[in-house]
Design a protein that fits this description.
Largest sheet: 5 strands, antiparallel
Number of helices: 35
Helix content: 40-55%
Number of strands: 30
Strand order of the largest sheet: 15-16-13-12-27
Strand content: 15-25%
Amino acid sequence: MTLRRTLRSGVAAACILATVAPAGVAAQGAPQASAQPLEVRVAQARGFSRVEFQWRGVARMTSRQAGQVLTLRFSRDANPDISRLRVSPPRGLKTAQARHVGGVLELDLTLEEGFEARMGQADGAAFVNIAPKPEAQTAEAPEAKAVAAAPAPLEPPPDRPNPVPADGVVRLDARLEGAQAVLRFPWAAPAGAAVFRRGDAVWVVFDAPARLDVAKAPRGLRQFSRMEAFRGPDYSAVRIASPQGVPVFAISEGNTWIIALGAGAQAQPAVINVRRDETGGPASLTAAVSGVTRIVRIADPMVGDTLTIATALGPAKGLPSRREFVQMALLPSAQGLAMEAFAEDITLSRDGDLVAIGRPAGLALSSPTVAARRNEAPVGAPMPAGRPALVDYDNWPKTGSGGFMSRYNALVTAAAEEGLDGQESKVAARMALARFLVGTELAFEAIGVLNDVARQHPSLMGDAEFRGLRGISRVMARRYKEASADFSSPALSNDPAAALWRAYLAGQTAQWPEARKEFAAGAAAFNQFPAVWRQRFARADAKAALEMGDLDGADSRIRMALAEDTDALEELAVRLLQAELAERRGQTGRALRIYQAVASAPVDYLSAPALLNATRIRYEEGDITPIQATAAYDSLRFRWRGDATELATIRALGRLYLSQGRYREALEALRSAGQRLPDLPEALGLQADLSTAFRALFLDGLADGLEPVQALALFFDFKDLTPLGADGDMMVRRLVRRLVDVDLLNQAADLLAYQVDNRLDGVPRAQVATDLALIYLMDRRPEQALVTINGTRSTILPRQLNADRRLIEARALSDLGRLDHALEILERDESVGARDLRAEIVWRKKDWPQAGALFEASLGDRWRNPAALSAEDEGKLLRAGVAFSLAGDDAALARMEERYKGFLDGARNPEALRVALTGVASGPVGVGEFGRLAADNEAFAGWVAKMKDKFRAAAAPAAQAAAKPATAAKPA
């Protein structure tokens, strides 16, 4: 035939036998249910690989091993699909071979060198776990080096139950809880520990030589960047790279030590009291460390010196700050003691609960002679007020004829001498200094004095006046959370003055019902406060009443506040609240006049909120345009910063940006303040606005008007706002669909790769990885597709998902030229998609008889349907004709021509089909044109179009989900 001769010519064969495009995955039929009694599943984890054998019914598995060949013998026979174990085996496995011996099945698994296998049963399935041998791990572990280089033990092990687990490994459990990174170390029995900071590292040392498994520790967090485990003959330790300033807490819960990095609500540890040893002999120090268990020495690999550490049982006790001496220093710790020696002969030893620090010639310490003891506070020192939580503005700030500095220096001198006095009960001078500082509203200085005296005298934590003074100082410093801890002390529970402070604090943290309740409880002490605080308390109660809808109650408290004789600025603060009340009552004009009047105040903390509200009312009333309002808000956000006014300004600005389509500016503005001021109550509303804006953009379609590249850049810059679960997955799918539509396949792949690597696990991760592999195939990157499929294997995937992944894996192998492996993967799959792909692979192998038969079978009874052929059907028909021609099967060609001759005139490429089926051209179709029609590029473009349809279909539910709330919101 003319066609056969043409096809066998060199030019035409080069055109036709090019890389063949796969048939569509989206149009695949559902896989047939497996009738095999044994299903083999493969999963890949970070530290090991798993092969599961799921039998239908009961089957026993036995094993034997010769060298690296593991033979599994089952009590039943089967013909399982082990193509994946042969074509792309998991890590640690070379290959697999099945045999049928004596009516039962045997499998030979050949392991790679350095790997071992462990067998077991779980969830009705037998499994084999393949992992590196422990010897190999130990040889590479950094802690092994530490064992070799560690100093010899200083003392025998403690007499106690061994805390080391049976397998010798303590596995770290790390997770994020709010703003903290929480690390848990579970032991078999209570273990002694020390937790301390040295520079940019936090050390966690245990008094038992277990192997600490920190392989699952996250990296690159704000609280810490990385960690490294060490082990010595009498200790195990972890060095955590953590920036200075990150708080560290140690908590003992039973057999578990919990280390928390970051700001949190945990209590401070008990303070270890380090003092001069007065028993005689060379000068030395002693420290009372309850439950001290061991003295260990650790080499610091970063500094190159050796630290000496005293570990102890819980509860936590430590040193809040570094204690510097001439020949050594004690490092700040959350648990235990850690010493940095400057001289070689410094020793640390323990005797019961006492830890001694010394050297043979004695330490160089200051003289024990101190100033003469004082039995009373200095003459004329500020005295306690009538109630523990009262402020005495009449007496405490008095300076006398010498002025402020003279008075201040006298009180500081008395306090310093008292601190050097040997009698620990003396605190009167320092409390007098604190009262003076509170009376002059030097809040931060007062906090420092009170914290220092509390460290030296922990018993003061139960003193009512101490708690009241420190709570007042913290309120003045706007440290509201810390102040709440002081005023919540049982020592102040029955003090009505403390109740007023609690009411004020509740108002500052938006706890409106609590504020009203505590204000009522403190009514008895209200008139004992100075006028300025009476006004502030009344203003706080008015705000709480306003927020709870009690407008009359708010009006009453506002009148009470205005009745106080204070300075003009305090009155303006009340007027701001009066304007808000007027606005709630619908008196918008009056509210605007008050806001505009207060906006001219000489201090920004009053003028800024007034200007904010005045601008909002004018914008709502239509007096100014959105652009003018935006300019006013934008100027105000930089004029006043640091409190709720800034957050309210940014919320208003963000909403205006969104309404103007300035999406990036909106998200940047909303995110900036929420990160800097997370403790303010208004930050919760701002975070809600930020989340709502992000959802509106990427879930409700607000960002659909952006160019795909712009939408992608916006999404990546704010990807931390992506919600977990179905909504977040739908956002990504919608964006991926848009990127695929415009052939931005590389960017779509990056988006899905981030989801796979950082946000998902289990079945959802495998589902997204399947889409990612499909995009890699569309982008002609089969190697990446194969790596993605192999890297997300699991034994718990649904059957349909496994079928989709099998087709993608086979197509990737085909694109890489591994045609036999691809056919082996599809050997047991009889689905429509597998049948079409099998035909494509056989075509590439140039097995023309089988290729023609498979393409004809793929068309099925299509010739019975008189409708015009689709582009895909035309391609199959064309290739069937070419294959039968090259195979010399004239009978098959005649059959195909008889069945499909009625479709030729209505086809897209009638001449090409006519030549393929009959060998006779009725029109001008040359060798080059025919080769183009039969080659891959046309088919590949059609397959990519099908894949785009698939991603559109996957993202379609988002529009439906977004439409439902909108429909429900319409008025009846």
